[in-house]
Amino acid sequence: PPSLPEYFVVPSSLADQDLKLYSYSFIGRRMPLWSWNHPNGSALVRMANIKDVLQQRRIDQRICNAITRSHPLRSDVYKSDLDKCLPNIQEIQGAHIKLKQLCVNEPFEETEEKWLSSLENTRWLEYIR
Asked: Are 26 and 73 in the same domain?
C-alpha cells in the first residue's frame, strides 16, 4: 500500500520469505513496523491485526520470537492492544474539528464563561495527552 514506508526495520532472524508470506496475513498487508527505540534496546513496534484467527497465534509467536532474538538483552515482547485504550483516527479528527470551531468560529466574549468546559468537551486535550 502507498501509505507504508519505503524501508522497514526487520529482525535479522526473520527470513525474507517468511516476511513476504506473513504480509498477506495482516489486515491491509501491514506488517509489524518499527516505530521507535530506546537506548536500552527496547523498541516500539506497531502491528495490524492478523486476518486468519487460526494462523494468528502461530504468526504472532514467530514474529515475537524474532523480535526477542534481536533484542540485545533477549527481553520478552510486551504486547498491548491499543485499539482498546486509544481513540481511533475519526475520533481524533472529530476532536480537532471541535477545537477549531471553539477557537476560530465562536466569539470568545460570548463563550468565555464556559470556554474551559467547552474545551474539555472537545476531548482534544485528552487525546493529545
From this structure: yes
30-61 pLDDT, tens digit each: 777 777 777 877 778 787 888 888 888 888 88
Listing DSSP states for 56-76 in one string gives HHHHHHHHHHHHHHHSTT-PP
In-domain check, residue 96: yes
What residue numbers bound the domain in which 118 lies? 86-128
- Give how many domains the chain has, as a whole number: 2
Q: Supply the pTM of this predicted model.
A: 0.56
Residue 20 and residue 69 in one domain: yes
Please report, to the nearest 10 degrees, the dihedral formed by the alpha carbons of residues 98, 3, 5, 25 taken in order.
110
- State yes or no: 89 annotated in a binding site: yes
Cβ contacts of 47 within 8 Å, gap of 6 or more: 26, 30, 31, 32, 33, 63
Q: Is 50 within any annotated ligand binding site?
A: no
CA 35 to chain centre: 9
CB 79 within 8 A of CB 32: no
